[in-house]
Amino acid sequence: MLDLLHHQITSNSEKIAWGFYIENVNLTDKLLKLPEVDGTTYGTSQGWHWICELGQDVIKRGQVLLTICHLDHDNKHWVALVVDGESKQLAYGNSMGHRIPKEILIAYQEWFS
Questions:
Q1: Which of 53, 97, 63, 57 is nearest to 83 (CA)?
Q2: Distance between CA atoms of 5 and 98, rounded to whole angstroms?
Q3: CATH class of residue range 2-111
């Protein structure tokens, strides 16, 4: 679904596409593992370098990142996340009305701090 959204945004107009990143579910899963990583590995390791660069791009350029993540272990409940790099705000959309899980909130806050 995010791949389709990414394609539609980037193929319609450069004005629409500029300023937006669309990432798949792997982003949140990876960010939740950040506490296990030391500071030097985060910026230099092949597996973490893309996340480090993405975070810098979103924050420094004031761009917007759109993604989804699953909350249940069986992947049956999905939520939307939007990172606004300009205001350093995280928006969370949950169709069940639940608040953002603390570990996800902390992971994103640490990532763009």
A1: 63
A2: 25
A3: alpha beta
